[in-house]
User: What shape does this take?
Amino acid sequence: MLAYWWPIILVVTSNTLYQVCAKSLPADVHPLASATVTYLIGALVTVILLRFLSHEQNLLREYTRINWTSFVLGVCVVGLEVGMLYTYRVGWPVSTASVVQAAFLAVSLLVVSSLLFHEPITMNKVLGVAICLVGLYFLNK
Assistant: This one.
């Protein structure tokens, strides 16, 4: 059971800390300067984790297996990071910014998952999205 839930716990914990840090960025620090340090630290941590968690002894071989998705993912992660930093910079409250983006993301992923991965759009999913959107209305009132 822990094997099923630990990734979600990691994401929720990391995202909570991320939102606190992003909102706490000093106003006189440029968001891109912060992102540079963030990604340098992130690169260092991932190299260390790769060394200890990979079954492959030749780590360079791991890098030769990378395809286009890692490069696009890198651009996407920068978009996520910079987008959230500017979201807080322009005044969004922590209590709603993440929820608003997550609700719109859910709508987007419902469509994308259907088109790219042929996942069904069920009535329960449509109802869930509708409830999310109603919730957004109340969050922003």
About this structure: The CA atoms of residues 27 and 100 lie 23 Å apart.
